[in-house]
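Long-time lurker. I teach an intro course on protein structure, and each term I like to show students one example going from raw sequence to a predicted 3D structure in token notation. This year I'd like something fresh instead of my usual example. Would anyone be willing to generate the tokens for the chain below so I can use it in lecture? Attribution to the forum is fine with me.
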Amino acid sequence: MPELPEVETIKRDLEKRLIGKKLLRIEIFQETFYKKYFKDDFLLKLKTLLSQKIKEIRRKGKYLLLLLENKVLVFHLGVTGALILGNPKGGNPLFNKKHLILTLEFDELSLFFIDIRKFGKVWILEKEKLEDHFFFLGKDALEISFKEFKDLLLSKNRLIKSFLLDQRIISGLGNIYTDEILFRSRINPLRKTKNLSEEEIKRIYQNMQEVLVKAIELRGSSVKNYINGKGERGAFQEEHLVYGKRGSPCPICGNPLQYKKIAQRGTTFCSRCQR
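-- Reply from a regular --
Happy to contribute to a lecture. Here you go:
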């Protein structure tokens, strides 16, 4: 699933080329996708976006927001979703048409929404209702201060892995980056938040910031299907120390990396280095 670094990379790719562009045409390829998730009037609402310009592009946690003149088009990429810029006539050779959900056409530029497994979602919101819609999201993992992070962490009595994954507490982190952050912090994912020391909390916070910034610099992790707004793979997967490497030697001590379901998510860690 695209996490904070992947969605932020796509956001930066899109805003370089889409800001100020007028939406000229919308083409829908998978009507069953919309009928499954949305009300009957969703296709009619899409047409109200025509002739509006893209004013701003934002990211909220793992959500991507296209702010038009009086509406907001919200994307959640699910497990395999992608937003790719391309030529409206030439299309894009990187994907099969059966995975193409929606195309937004601008002058000499198109935005293709593709989703192989079709777990992604799209919403249309009124601008004035934007903040109300995202009331459930916690502070962004890149924006939260150390004090806010510490206070939230010590106010809960949860497994640290579960805490970091909870979008209502901190938004943007998923399975890839929680595993990498906890390994670099030498914290076992089964540790309870209330039992963490000040020094351990500092390590988690600092590694969270450093890992996310580095992952954005390397344009995300292409573990399976992720590609950025240019249709290119990211490179942070080359920096992964534990994620997806169960059974491999720990890069620090050489002990085989363990794998366990924690908070309903497959978790890779070193039982020797992460105590």
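Some talking points for your students: The first helix runs from residue 4 to 18. The chain has eight helices and twelve strands.
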